[in-house]
Amino acid sequence: MSADTLPPLREVIAAHGLGADKRFGQHFLLDLNLTAKIARLCGDMSAATFVEIGPGPGGLTRALLSEGARRVIAIEKDARFLPALEEVSAAFGSRLKVIEADALTITATALGLEDGERAIIAANLPYNVGTALYTGWLEAEPVWWSRAVLMFQKEVAQRIVAPVGDDAYGRLAILTAARAQAKYAFTLPARAFTPPPKVDSAVVVVDPLPDGERFDDTQALSAVTASAFGQRRKTLRKSLAQAASQTRASAEELLAACDIDPGARAETIPPEGFMALARAWRAARS
Ligand code: SAM
């Protein structure tokens, strides 16, 4: 079988009995124009190794390979898809390697990247683990990826790119800004998927900040943002009390160290303010 003669995805699903399993967040993209549109957001493909999470029946996988990806390492938890993916691998001259694993637990080493190599992550992410996977990749050091092109449910995509002051602004936008640059690429309506999920989806493109520019204490950042946004309608004087209780300083002292008004609310403080608070929180613990 060659790439041109691979059967349509609906036939692959029927032939292999691949009904969607809700436990694995399975909503398939069967329109190859849409998968090609996602693949083209990945930038220069021919020199790159791709890591795809959850290839399923292989729609996005085919698009990555057809658009010229040098090789694709695909991680799929549901073993039912492996025979169909083997056919894709055969059609593309073994540029596809499939690993049956849980993407939440697989290590960068297990991916088999060459020393210092940075992969491009591409995925139509399962909703139930999408945010956990994303924050894990953001926090990973050393960074093993050069770009991530990711489909999330639309609300999560909006939270990733939200500017300060926006209703969606919070922990996800701040962690993203501390470690990377993210752009909202486009929205996909629920009807684009088989079976359709309850909500729309959106693709974001995320590039890690250069070495030396990424905020390095994500644990402290997580502590202060969890506290501040845990009670987002309260003033920081009150909402930061929980994080401050883990230090020798009061919330007011932490805020004063960063020149932040204790009467302000979390959603009005830009990511740089939270990075300064994270440093003050860390210093007040030692
Ligand atoms: N890429 C396919 C597409 O676009 O049609 C399928 C996307 S579907 C939203 C999510 C895929 O992730 C499914 O194939 C599912 O089995 C897989 N998956 C779910 N949880 C996973 C996990 N923890 N690790 C790896 N794959 C997982």
Question: How would you concisely characterize the structure shown here?
Answer:
Helices cover 37% and strands 18% of the residues.
Give the helix/strand layout.
Blueprint: H1 9-15, E1 28-29, H2 32-39, E2 49-53, H3 59-66, E3 71-76, H4 82-91, E4 96-100, E5 119-124, H5 127-139, E6 145-153, H6 154-161, H7 171-179, E7 180-188, E8 193-194, E9 201-208, H8 218-230, H9 236-239, H10 241-244, H11 251-257, H12 271-285
Parallel strand pairs: 2-3, 2-5, 3-4, 5-6
Antiparallel strand pairs: 1-8, 6-9, 7-9
Helix pairs in contact: 2-3, 6-7, 7-8, 7-12, 8-12
Bound molecules: S-adenosylmethionine.
Residues 24-29, 53-56, 59-60, 75-78, 102-104, 124, 126, 129 line the site of S-adenosylmethionine (SAM).
Q: Roughly what percent helix? A: 25-40%
Put simply, the count of helices is: 12
CATH-assigned homologous superfamily of the largest domain: Vaccinia Virus protein VP39
What is the radius of gyration?
21 Å
The number of domains is 2
What string, H for helix and E for strand, traces the elements in order?
Answer: HEHEHEHEEHEHHEEEHHHHH
| Spatial sequence of strands, sheet with the most strands | 4-3-2-5-6-9-7
First and last CA, distance: 62 Å
How much β-strand is present in the residues?
15-25%
The CATH topology of the largest domain is given as Rossmann fold
Q: How would you describe this structure to a colleague?
A:
With 286 residues, this protein is an alpha/beta fold. It folds into 2 domains: 3-208, Vaccinia Virus protein VP39 (Rossmann fold, 3-Layer(aba) Sandwich); 218-285, rRNA adenine dimethylase, C-terminal domain (Helicase, Ruva Protein, domain 3), CATH 1.10.8.100. 37% of the residues lie in helices and 18% in strands. It has helices spanning 9-15, 32-39, 59-66, 82-91, 127-139, 154-161, 171-179, 218-230, 236-239, 241-244, 251-257, 271-285, and strands spanning 28-29, 49-53, 71-76, 96-100, 119-124, 145-153, 180-188, 193-194, 201-208. It has a 7-stranded mixed β-sheet, sandwiched between helices. Strands 1-8 form a two-stranded antiparallel sheet. Helix 8 (218-230) packs across helix 12 (271-285). It is elongated and about 65 Å long. Residues 24-29, 53-56, 59-60, 75-78, 102-104, 124, 126, 129 line the site of S-adenosylmethionine (SAM).
